[in-house]
Amino acid sequence: MASEDGTPRILVVEDNAINQLVTAEALEDFGFVAVVAPSGAEAIDRVRATEYDISLMDCQMPDMDGFETTRRIRAIERELGRRPRPIIALTANVVRGVRARCTEVGMDDYISKPIDLDLLHDTIVAHLRPDATA
């Protein structure tokens, strides 16, 4: 959920420290509150404790990948009676079928790495205001 002042809170689920920094700084420059979870397990803990407006999900992480993390987040939302929040995949993997797999596990959108910051901004805004026209 948005922060106390109404600023959208975005969870960045990313294991790479450089990508964490670049993404979080870009989100803050866009005017959002960025919260980083360096693993799928930590993301699950954070989502259980707090609602975020959007999650940006790295698909390839050690221990628990972004696909399994998304499945578990969707289960938590159902368990707690929450409205599903958008999850946007971030992946360097452009192999055929990845986009379909993202959709299959409950992700709402997909952005390829390296991340185009204008595309990231526009995608987030579109999901924050799904009824807005482009």
Summarize the topology:
Elements: E1 9-13, H1 17-29, E2 33-37, H2 40-49, E3 54-58, H3 66-80, E4 87-91, H4 98-105, E5 109-112, H5 117-128
Parallel strand pairs: 1-2, 1-3, 3-4, 4-5
The arrangement of helices and strands along the chain is EHEHEHEHEH
Give the averaged pLDDT, no decimals.
Answer: 92
Radius of gyration: 14 Å
Question: What's the CATH topology name?
Answer: Rossmann fold
Total number of domains: 1
**Low-pLDDT residue spans:** none
CATH evolutionary superfamily: Response regulator
Measured distance between first and last alpha carbons:
24 Å
Q: What fraction strand?
A: 15-25%
Structural class computed from helices and strand pairing: alpha/beta
Please give the number of β-strands: 5
Instruction: Please tell me what the overall shape is.
Output: globular
Oligomer: single chain
CATH domain class: Alpha Beta
The biggest beta sheet, please?
5 strands, parallel
Instruction: Write the CATH architecture name.
Output: 3-Layer(aba) Sandwich
Strand order of the largest sheet: 2-1-3-4-5
